[in-house]
Amino acid sequence: MKRFTYVLLLTICCSFIYQINAQQKRIYIKYSGFAKSSDNGVQEFIRDDTQQIHFIHEGIDMYCDKAIYYQTEDFVEAYGNVSMKQGDTINMTSKYVEYSGITQLAFARGNVVLREPQSTLTTDTLWMDRAKQQAFYKSKGKVVRDSSGTITSQIGRYYMDRSKYQFVKDVKLVNPEYTIDTNQLDFYTETGHAYLFGPSTIVSETSTIYCERGFYNTNDDTGYFVKKSKINYDNRIVEGDSMYFDRNRSFASATNNIKVTDTINRSIITGHYAEVFREKDSVYITKRALAITVQENDSLYIHGDKLMITGKPEHRITRAYYGVKLYKSDLAGKCDSIHADHKTGLTQLINIERFGTSDPFSTKRKPILWNLGNQMTGDSIHLISNVEKEQLDSLKVFNNAFLISKDTIGDSDGFNQIKGQRLIGLFRDNELYNVDIIKNAEKIYYSRNDDNELVGINKSKSGSINIQIEDNTITIISLLKQIDGDIFPESEFPKNARQFRGFDWRDEERPKSVEDLFRGEPPLKLPVIKGLDEYVPQAEFFDDELMARMELSKKKVFIEKYSKENQTFEKPTKIKTREISKNLLKEIDNFKHKVWQKYDVKLIQTQIKAPDNISVDYLIKRKGERDFGYIGQNTNEIEGNYKFTVWLKGKGSVLINLQEGAGDYTRYNFTSVKLSNTWQEYAVEGKKDSDNNPLRITISNIDNNEEIYIWEPKLVKIKQ
User: Fold this and answer.
1) I want to staple 175 with a disulfide (CB 3.0 to 4.6 A). Which of 149, 525, 641, 662 is the partner?
2) Which of 669, 643, 655 is closest to 583 using CA atoms?
3) E strand or H helix at 238, and its extent?
């Protein structure tokens, strides 16, 4: 017996606990204010002077000034200063909210503000799915995060469990330092991390960044960009497969397929790794580094292991290091290092002796230039350009100058040679036309007659030698301050004496094209860039799972309705019918719009507050030219039961009508109202049979003595 009693008590307790839990899953009315119930299970609540109406459901608290609660559907319509709080993390305020205890789906409209610890979202309409912990808008929204700025978009979704926003369409992030425009943006409010997808730009006073996929840390102003990434620093454009950016350091680096364009000095450098320091106006680039100086008819290409461009646009310096080669259609060169001053037009080819290295190039090979068939070497070589004409002006070879050209006529395998202490060459239209060998000049030259027959081999010494060149052919050789010399028949000139000491013919090293600049280098292995994950499009907010939950709630008007917000009531409105549609009227806030037909009345927009204490209402007055006036709107409705409501105040009496919008303008029903100086909501209901003419609503019988303030017109289909 005791055991039976114990089991019975346990069963009763469990049943009681189950009932409490089941009851807790429904919307709980913690404070109701003034309440009124109807026979169909609908309750209406209006706040009192002490506090707002308070609902609780599954971890949320909702407050409002007025509410209608549908007990069967466990559904609330909340009006006026509505707020929903979820713990201490989510707080949403608006003028109007619909909430289903079955689907846990909320719809908010009118000055919607959603706050979480790191950001604030404002929009006009917002859906919140508490089951999935997501909020969604599609009519433009704005998110403010203090350290990041303001983000706006046409469509957005907030994932509460991840503190993540996903913005779509016309996305703009505005920060005091920069502005981001993109197609899609994923933003994490806790970290300030932003992920950009699609064509995107980041614009500031000092730079413009473009990419089609990227990451930006709004907390420390660093970014990582891939897919057609580009940074424009004033007059320098940096492009690459992958780019890193640090705004605070004015620094950027790029990897793979890099191109840096100097728009002022008309130069381009390419490579596969680069570093750019904007404030220092410097660029460092390596891995197949190539500098291109663009000229009118020809361009000069310089390649080295490393390239560095420094200095302001008006005085840029290009430096190339180690194994440097240069190429131009009529000029080529090779040296250890190059220093080019774009302002003065001086390009220096230098060999730097690197001690402790076995590289023969750095210790033995001298800088070398090839101009057409001529090879010039020396301890150092200077090329001087005319920066205004963008043409070569002259060249200078310092110490151990050596000029060699092959005697290509007949079967000769000889070489014309001139050497001395220094060499000075002059260019005309980028062609070498005059060469002077100065101090301790010597020559070995294969002399030929007019029929190109070999006369002999001339070997001479002199203080200096002048060479005249025409059509790339030596025409005159003049020995100045000659010491000695003679012409020897070829048979009498020993072969071992036909080359000066230090002779070094290096034609096999000569670059004959841009591609030749990279000849002999090992294959380049570029790093694999993983980059950023592809953009994952937003799933449908109203997916099958949500629609199934809505079906269970039997309250589809929850999504379909278009309810105006924040209504203040002097007395409870008697609930006679159920609305089964959204507001069927158009331009409900702009009575001056052409959809509102006006007959002998004029509209004046006032500063008087409407019932919501926010909106500005309109004053309707007669023009006084006809017997009466009216204002109305045709709809697309053909058949059904309808209810027309409107808020009015003023003086005089008017008719509120439901009527036919064409034909004989049959009046289906009307309400005669006498206006007062306080706002009241007036309604008229009627049935329209199908007559192929549209339904029309009007406020009529406006005479000359009446002043009517109007707000919140609403036409809905109803079910008796």
Assistant:
1) 149
2) 643
3) strand 236-246
**Nearest-angstrom CA–CA distance, 584 and 635:** 7
Supply the pLDDT for residue 60: 92
Q: d(Cα 276, Cα 259) in Å, to the nearest integer?
A: 12
pLDDT for 492-505, tens place per residue? 888 888 888 889 89
Answer whether 660's CB lies under 8 Å from 669's CB: no
Question: Three-state DSSP class for 248?
Answer: coil
Listed residues 505, 529, 548: the one ending a domain: 505
* Residue closest to 177 by CA, chosen among 216, 122, 226, 120: 216
- Print burial letters for 619-633: b (CB count within 10 Å at least 16), e (below 16): bbbbeeeeebbbbbb
Judge whether 218 and 195 are in contact, CB under 8 Å.
Answer: no
Q: What is the distance in angstroms between the CA of the first residue and the CA of the last residue of the chain?
A: 57
Query: 364-376, pLDDT tens digit by residue?
Result: 568 999 887 889 8
pLDDT score of 579: 80
Q: Is the pLDDT score of 564 beyond 60?
A: no
Say if 30 falls within a structural domain.
Answer: yes
| 69-94 pLDDT, tens digit each | 998 888 999 999 999 999 888 999 99
678 lies in which domain range? Answer: 576-719
Q: Are residues 684 and 586 in the same domain?
A: yes
CATH code (residue 682): 2.60.120.260
Cα–Cα distance, 354 to 363 (Å, whole number): 7
Q: Identify whether 399 is part of a domain.
A: yes
Q: In this structure, what token pair is assigned to residue 619?
A: 């004053």
Q: In the prediction, which pLDDT does 97 show?
A: 94
Whole-angstrom distance, CA of residue 535 vs CA of residue 296:
44
**From CA 376, how far away is CA 391, in angstroms rounded?**
19
Tell me the two tokens of residue 130.
């508490």
Burial group, residue 637, by CB count within 10 angstroms (0-12, 13-18, 19+):
middle
Number of domains in the chain: 3
In a domain? residue 63: yes
Residues 581, 715 within the same domain? yes
Evaluate whether residue 655 is within a structural domain. yes
Determine the Cα–Cα distance for residues 82 and 97; give it in Å rounded to an integer.
Answer: 7
| pTM score | 0.64
Of 95, 112, 140, the position where a domain reaches its end is: 95
708 and 580 belong to one structural domain:
yes
Q: How far apart are CA 398 and CA 333, in angstroms?
A: 15
Residues 494 and 627 in one domain: no
